[in-house]
Structure formats: structure tokens, C-alpha cells
């Protein structure tokens, strides 16, 4: 390819993306949802002063037990009730994993990075073992997928607005809840008493303690709630998006969620836009496969090996971390264990 053709191809790529992205917005949101939910977990934890790199393991463990619940119950109580119970079980597993991480990080004051690595390794090994022991030998499937809402054609056909509404509303209930959680946490974190206390605990826990804020209790509560949201991400993957479970199926989404947190400067709204960027990158392979670009651009993009598209989100993650980490300032007490001083 002539190097002088690169600017023209880049221009064709921009035009192609503007044309093809609107119909794929619901698909991009599906790819974004688990990353965004994982990022919200990261924001809650790190704003409270606790580093949580175990989001990947929490999502995987929640996905497995949520799927296992649907797998075991759908024949006896019906598919939809089994799916609903599976979602609650997944969130509960996330809460339990969060309690373990909080205990290790806050009470035991273990190294928070090591605690997160422990969660990831533990989840990967346990779910693979239980999958081989329980699910694979049965030959049965799970309870299916949560039903999705579809916009009426009269609304979906409205130019621009229809595509945007379809992105958020042509979804199942968990994906639809993402924007509610993002906006709700953004408001609460920066416009509520709880948010002020959370930010104080993440920035200067000793000062927060002197004005009567229970630092330990607040950190515990926020880490557990955040990990419950990560459990919801696991439920989304198996009960709304795929309807199946495979070993290691979170596929790095928890780590990408951490990159979205940094990209979004530890804010819920910014982290959502970071997750949306990664969702768009993940969707490129799908868009090229379904709607091949015309002309020379199509020939070039079709000639790129599929593995490069698969690796693209992780390449973007490295670029984001390399370009943003030095400019983004995390909460001052992030990752620093707090020991309450004895009162005289």
C-alpha cells in the first residue's frame, strides 16, 4: 500500500464509522455494560481509599454462581424466576467477595494489590474446577437470557434521537440499569453527604476521623457495595448477554474497567465514557465483519488478521494508561491502609 494513501484511508475510516456506528449502538452498549459496571466498582473502592484489582475475579465468580443458579433451578421453577434469582445470587457473591477483600485490605491491612491478585487467582481456579465438576458433565444448558425491551418503531425511526434511545433502551434490564447507576452515583458522590464523606475518607482519612466519620465502617460499606455492582456485571455476562458460561469468560474486562476508572479520573460519569470507548473498540471487529467497508478501506481492514482486532482493546488500554496515568491524580489515600489511632 502506498504510504501517501494513509490520510485518505483515515478519512474514509472516519466516514465509515459515522455511517455504521448508529445501527450498532445497542451492540456497543452490550459490550460496554460489564466494563462500566466494573468501573463503578473501582470508583467506589478507590474513592474510599481501597485499591481493588480483583474486579476480574469478582465478576467471574459472580458470573459462575449466577449461571449455576439458573442451571439448577430453571427446570423446577421456570426460566424467568431462575434468571431473576440468578441475578440476586450473582450480586450476593459479589458482596461476599467484597467483604473478603475489605477484610484483607482494611482489617488485616494486607497489601491491597496482593489481596486483589488472590481474588483473581482464586476465582479463576474455583470456577474452572466447579464448571468441570458440575456443569460440563450434565450436558444441560442454563436458564437462557433475560428478556430484552424493544423500542417502538415510531420512536426508533426518529433521526439521531432514535439511535441514542435505542442504545440504552433496546437492552435487557441489567444493561438498562447501567446509565441509572452511573448518573445516580455521579450525583451522590458529588452532591450528597455520603459522597462528601467518601471523598474525605479517600483523600485524608485522619482528618475525616477527627470530625467523627467512621473511616473503617465507611470503607467497608463502599467496598462491599461496589463489589456487589461488579457482581451485577458478572450476572449481565451470563444471564443477559451470552446465556452460557465458559472458563475465564470475563476475558480481561475487569482489568479494562480499571483502565476506564483512570481514564475517567475516578468519576462515575467519566468512567462510563471510558468504558464506552472500550466498548466501541471491542465492537470494531463485529462492525467490520457485518458491514464491510467499501473500496480499498474494506480490502485493507478485511486483510487485517482477526487476532489484531481481538488485541485492540488491550492495546488501547496500554495507550490509555501510558497517556493518562501521569496526568490523572488518584485519591491521596488510595491504597493506604488506615489504622485508627487510640484515643487518650
Name a few traits of the molecule.
single chain, 344 residues, mainly alpha, ABC transporter involved in vitamin B12 uptake, BtuC, 14 helices
Describe the fold and architecture:
The chain has a single domain (about 5-325), classed as ABC transporter involved in vitamin B12 uptake, BtuC (Orthogonal Bundle). It has helices at about 5-45, 55-75, 80-105, 110-140, 155, 160-170, 175-190, 195-205, 205-210, 215-240, 255-265, 270-290, 295-305, 305-325. The model has no long low-confidence stretch (mean pLDDT about 90). It is mostly helical and about 350 residues long. It is globular, with a radius of gyration of 21 Å. Helix 1 (about 5-45) crosses helix 10. It is built from 14 helices and no strands. Helix content is about 75%, strand content about 0%. The chain starts with 5 loop residues before the first helix and ends in a 20-residue tail after the last helix.
Summarize the structure.
The chain is mostly helical and 344 residues long.
* Low-confidence runs of at least 5 consecutive residues: none
In total, how many beta strands?
0
User: How far apart are the termini?
Assistant: 76 Å
Structural class: mainly alpha
Please indicate the count of domains: 1
Helix content: over 70%
Order of helices and strands: HHHHHHHHHHHHHH
What's the CATH architecture?
Orthogonal Bundle
Q: How many H/I helices?
A: 14
General shape? globular
Compute the average pLDDT. 90
| Major sheet | none
**CATH level 1 name:** Mainly Alpha
Query: Over all CA atoms, what is the radius of gyration?
Result: 21 Å
Beta-strand percentage range: under 5%
> Do you know the CATH topology?
ABC transporter involved in vitamin B12 uptake, BtuC
